[in-house]
Amino acid sequence: MTTRDQVLDAARDDVIDAARGEVLDAARGVANHLGLDALERDRANAEPFTEAELLRKAGLPAVLLPTSVGGAGLPWSVALDVVKEIARTDGSIAQLLAYHYVNAHNLVWVADDAGRQRWGVPTAEQQWLWGDSVNPVDPDLQLRPDPDVTGGWILSGTKNFSTGASVGDVTVVGGLTDDGRDLLVVVPRETPGFVKGGDWDNLGQRLSASGSVRFEDVRIAPDAVLGSASTSGAFGSLVTLAIQAAFGHFYLGVTRGALETAAEYTRSTSRPWLLSDVQNAVEDPYVLATYGRLVARLRAAEALGRSVGESLSQAHERGADLTWAERGEVAEEIAALKVVSSDLAVEATSTIYEVTGARASSNKYGFDRFWRNVRTHTLHDPVQYKAREVGNHFLTGAHPEFTLYT
């Protein structure tokens, strides 16, 4: 006999599935639009204001925010799929959106109810994008008490990398107080003293708005202090797992985009090798086998990605009841995704030249952007440490220790 709870759960699942379909359709539309001039925009290396507006108009920034502030309240698995879909055609904008999802979700993991309403309502209503300035390998920014405002702070210092800060409506900033507390604060884009360097000029991810920022005695109001992830328990620590899961899905999306783009070239343009004894490149057994191995590995990695999305969503639903042991199991699974997706992305985006041919190296095609993007981003943190975490868990049962990278 069906219970009332089972009926409610089934109805909720139906609603989520319908919303998931709508959101992924919107993401697919954005991805297809971005794919029309991805190479030209990559070469222009401009701040992605137009692309950010495209995300807003599609309603993608608010899909994770809770319904209590006007968001869609969808699970993390949906947001990760959105990141993967956008990455298929534009890795930079996928990174911008992925970082937004994680940074804005500090409203759930870290902030109290007042902070959640103060910043969550306008984020949902206006589809704000959130930038990131919490890079732990940079010198920590300093927060000192504001002598004129009780509970206020004055923020000073520089971050060398700050994804989305230049185009985001607000930026989450991590700073240290004199007594050693690590606080997350919110800084709107046009705040006096918030200086954007505009100096991101790297090999790949050229439109990710990841340049430096400087804070010149920026005043932080009391209601702009969210709290601290390090004191928010296992639930608050999901911030680092979410960003690593987003990275894995980003790599999966770029890999699929590279293979799809290469496949179209192989069908339409590649010539069969003179020793192949075939009339078309798509009949070459070595071309077929190369694509086959890469696609098979991608399908396996995507299956792991789906499992990661469900595991992260379930951990998030646990809320304050989430234990460190439960968190640790999710961390290990995400580490495994990071290993396989990183390795596959770097290999596949290079190997596509072997199945497209020498003419495909012409700059007019720009196939190198896929490799440049994953090669740049996979250096964010050493994947070997993720492999070590997986191996340690397999051999000893140990869980990855919570840090700002795990």
From TrEMBL:
Domain Acyl-CoA dehydrogenase/oxidase N-terminal: 30-124
Name assigned to this protein: Acyl-CoA dehydrogenase family protein
SUPFAM superfamilies noted in UniProt: Acyl-CoA dehydrogenase C-terminal domain-like, Acyl-CoA dehydrogenase NM domain-like
Provenance organism: Kineococcus endophyticus
PANTHER family: ACYL-COA DEHYDROGENASE, ISOVALERYL-COA DEHYDROGENASE, MITOCHONDRIAL-RELATED
Domain Acyl-CoA dehydrogenase C-terminal as annotated: residue spans: 247-382
Recorded coiled-coil stretches: none
InterPro entries noted in UniProt: Acyl-CoA_DH_C (IPR013107), Acyl-CoA_Oxase/DH_mid-dom_sf (IPR046373), AcylCo_DH-like_C (IPR036250), AcylCoA_DH/ox_N (IPR013786), AcylCoA_DH/ox_N_sf (IPR037069), AcylCoA_DH/oxidase_NM_dom_sf (IPR009100)
Annotated signal sequence range: none
Lineage: Bacteria, Bacillati, Actinomycetota, Actinomycetes, Kineosporiales
Residues passing through the membrane, by range: none
Record keywords, A-Z: Oxidoreductase
